[in-house]
Structures are given as structure tokens and as C-alpha cells.
Amino acid sequence: MRTSLCALCKENRSVIIRPKDRAKLCKLCFINVFETEIHHTITTNNLFHRGEKIAIGASGGKDSTVLASVLKTLNERYDYGVELILLSIDEGIKGYRDDSLETVKRNAMQYEMPLTILGYEELYGWTMDQVVEQVGKKGNCTYCGVFRRQALDRGAARLGVKHVVTGHNADDVAETVLMNLLRGDLPRLSRTTSIVTSTPSASSDPASNTNIKRSKPLKYAYEKEIVMYAMHKKLDYFSTECIYSPEAFRGSARTLIKKLEQVRPSSILDIVRSGEDMAKLVPGNDEGCGGTCSNSIPVADEEEGGCGSANGRTAGGEMATMEQQLAQNEVASENALEVDLTTPKVNGQRNDRHNSGTVPLPNRRKGKKGGEAFIPKKAPTKQTMGTCERCGYLSSQKICKACVLLEGLNKSRPKNGLEISYDSQPKEESSVNGIINGLEKTAIAGD
Amino acid sequence: MEGDQTINITLGFLGGLDKLVLGDLDENQMAIRLSSRTETGKNVNLKYLFKHIYDNLLVKSERLVPKRDPRYDENDPGKQLPFEEAASVLIENGKIRGGNLVVINEADWECIADDLAEELGVEVVADEMEISDGDKIEFVTTLHGG
Fold first, then answer.
1. Cβ contact (<8 Å) for A61 and B97?
2. Which superfamily does B2-141 belong to?
3. Which chain B residue has its CA at the smallest distance from A243's CA?
4. Where are the beta strands (DSSP E) in chain B?
5. What ipTM did this prediction achieve?
6. How confident is the model over A135-163, as pLDDT tens digits?
7. Residue ranges per domain, chain B?
8. In which pathway does it act (chain B) (predicted)?
9. Class of domain A27-307+315-326
10. pLDDT mean by block of 10 residues, chain B; 146 residues
11. Is the Cβ pair B16, A240 closer than 8 Å?
């Protein structure tokens, strides 16, 4: 078999073809380009500032392991002057998370970063194993996702860290864009495409867990390249899928984008870019100003990113259902949806292609003329943020999602305890106390 | 017979496929021997290898036997995954499923296929690339964990 030479150094044999531009590179040039691109993502978006303490949300999986490795390398190479620490969440899944945490512990030593592990049990009084026992395998990912988001913020608050970086990659973001598109949830789409999100503080207390910045330095990195990077750098990562069924809808979206990637590799970044462009069109979104306004950091979303372990294993039926939904969406778009978007001034191009900058769309709520036919089910109002009455966590509702889920779980817990046996009752009671204590603890930590 | 010649190749399974295909072995690779020609006398190619892996390795994988998978309820056939679906994590309808990388002698197979296409001036279907004695072929899934 013939092998070509690297497009950059023209010396070594090329070993990878890049999905984004089909450039063929050798191992060393690939590693270098991959790191440099992440450096560019960090600098052009001003993700870090000197002296900042940054927690890497570490699962032991490929994405967060690559993130930790690359950030360590870049921090040394370009002298960012940031302090990096690892923050892991123990969801309490035996045979999965306990094993992956061992990987994180090794990573902590390899990268010489301090590690903090925070458990769902400690925070919420429930491990995921217990949640699954209670609610079954269907829908358990919702609990896990909602709990994890808060857990990372709470862990960061405890450590006095204001910035958490996560390993969400381009494939993850493309998946989320597709899911929100298919759900017709443009406000969420606009929040989740942003590279920086934050949970703006309702209190001025610096220790508040509602003032944590989140960013995704790997947002433009292909999953394929992340895996290739990990392979060539021989990184130590954990790679067993979560033992609980993946969220079916995310799995379907994932399968779809992987199929698209096979046919047209640039699709993934194109979907990410489309998501960003669509986000600019969402009324009330600050990004409409082209990202130059101050305070344009979107509010973080509780479902952002999913858990990444959805392996796309879905029954054929689910795909069919989604295709049916797709078809329905098509019908819907033929009927009415397109009306609103034909505003002549729409500038859907990216800023870097058109220096003129984007022209914000007139606000749909005010400037609606012939577009009456299109009334979204959920009005795309900007979320107004307050704090949860129970735990003090940032929430657009009176009670935050985690507390609502916990309420449901806790209500049914003693009942089940009785049904099983008398023996388990005292244990159940202490668990309930544990939850109350846990919540009080976090409320104190959060106030 | 001339057609009885064999080739030796090394297979590697990474990123979670190791446990799935090879079970709890410490190794993530294995050596196999293949006939160098197909039944119709052609040189063996990747497509042939994928079928070989499916028919000989995946069917024997304990992890792919649905009953052994902790996710599924042993007593409820409705909650067990048919073998074809479990195996589709790597191979589906004889093809490598999207999200898996194939690395031949440390190079991305898409890169090799592109080189070959440039050399021959025709489109190359990656599955139809021939394999030769001594090749090391690794499969890496990108689908697990994060």
C-alpha cells in the first residue's frame, strides 16, 4: 500500500486524514495541530485568565483525559498561568464509575493535579444504583444529568473555584444541536451551543455555587481526533460504557451524526456552526449582537451535553420514530415555519466570512407581521433566573429540577422500604436523614 | 493446493472494544491466521476480515450474549438485546459502524484509502482494500464514555 507524506512537514508518513479539511498529517504534526487548535479556541474566546483556578470535570473517559492532558501541555507551553485541578463526580454506579474513578486517580498522579471526588450519595442521599432501583432503567439518565450538573457546580464552590471546564467535543455539541432542533427547542439550542455558559449569581457571596463559569475548550474538536490523540499519546483512559441504558433520543441523534460523518466528515463542525448561527437568531439571545456585547454569557442549561456515554445502541424502532418525527417537522416547515425566516436582512453568515457583522433579526414578539402562523409551543422568552427555594441553587423555577426529582424519589422511598422488609427500614430512615443532612449541608455551602 | 496459503495478522481492539470482543483478557490484541484467498480465489480484503471477526469472534463474545449484560433483564426476553443488535456496536450489515476507527499499521484506514485513490486515480471503497501478511489492524470505538 502506498502511503503519502504529511501535508505539513512533508517528511513523515501521514497517518491520519482530518475530518474537517481532509488534510493528511503525520503523527507528530497531528498532535501539534490538535493542541494548537485548542490553544486558539482558548485564546480567541478568552476562556482563561492569568491566576485563575480551573477545575476540569474529569470522568476518566477519553474526552476529559485528553482535556486534562492538553490543558496541562498548553498551560506549560504558552504560560497561561492558570491553576488546574481535577473534579470528579461519583454517581454511585458499581462496576462503572468506581472503576473509572481509579483512572481519574491515576490521571491525577500522571498530570500532578489535585483531585476532588464528590458523590451523589453525599450530595443528594441517593446513588445512581439506588435511583435506578427506584425508577427503573428508563429515564434514569435524566436524574443523572440533572444531578451531575449541580454536583459539578457545588464541588467547584466548595473548592473555591469559579470556572469548570468540561470535555464536551464537537460531536457532543452537534448531537445536542440536533436534539434541540428535533424538539423544537430553540432557546435551549442557543444556550447549549455557547462555548461559555455561566450560572450568574443571585447572591454576592463569592462562595456561592450559583456563580460558576463553564466552558468547553474541546468544542471544535472531533471525537475521532480526540480518540486518535489519546491513542498516539498513549493516554490512560477508561472506556467502558455506562451500565445503564443510554438515553434513547440522544442515542438516535448520535447514530445519525456518525452516519453523516461517514458520508461527509465536515458535517459535524457544520452542524455546530449552524447551531451557533441559529442561536444568533433566537430572540432575546445576547449573542445576536455578534458576541461583542458585555454580559453576553448565556445561562447554563441543566441538560447540556448529556452524559456522553450514550453509545448509539438503539432499537430500530426508535430511529423509525425519529424519522417519522423528522417527516412531521418537514411538513410543519412546509406549512408555516419558513415564513418567518425570509426576512431580507437575515445575515446567516458567520462573522469571519462577512466582516460587516450580523444584523440582528427584529424581535419576533414585536415585529411579527405575516408570521402569525408560527407560534412556538414554548414562547422563546429568555429565562429569568432566581434561586431554588429549597437548596439555593440557581433555577428558573421556584424549585430546581434536582429538588423536584429528589422530592419524587424521597416520597416513594419509605413506602418501598416497608414493602421489602422490616429489616431494611432503619437503614431507609437513616438514608432519608442523610438526604436532609446532605441538602442542608449543601445549602449552607451554597449560601 | 496453492489456494491454501495463509497470512498471519494481528488484531487489536481498543477504547472499550477490548472487553467487548476479547472479554476480560488482559491483552487487547490477538494474532489470527487467515486464508490468503477467498473461496472465489481473490486476495482477502477488509470486508472478508470483518465477516471473519463477526462470525468467529463476536459470536463467541460473552459480553455480547445478552443474558450476560447487566443492563438487560434475564427473565424478560423483551429486555434482551438480539445478538445482531449487540454486535452492531462494531459491525452492522457487514460494515464497520460509524464511530469506530480502523487503524492499519498505525495509520487511519480513511487516510490509506485516500492515498490509494490518489495513486490509482479511482474512487476506493475502504472495505475492499486488501490485507497482507504481517498487517496489524486495530479497531477503536469512539462511542464509550466521556
1. no
2. Beta-grasp domain (3.10.20.30)
3. B71
4. 6-14, 29-35, 91-92, 95-96, 100-104, 107-108, 136-141
5. 0.87
6. 877 777 788 888 888 899 889 998 999 99
7. 2-141
8. tRNA modification; 5-methoxycarbonylmethyl-2-thiouridine-tRNA biosynthesis
9. alpha beta
10. 77 86 80 90 93 89 58 57 78 91 94 92 92 95 67
11. yes
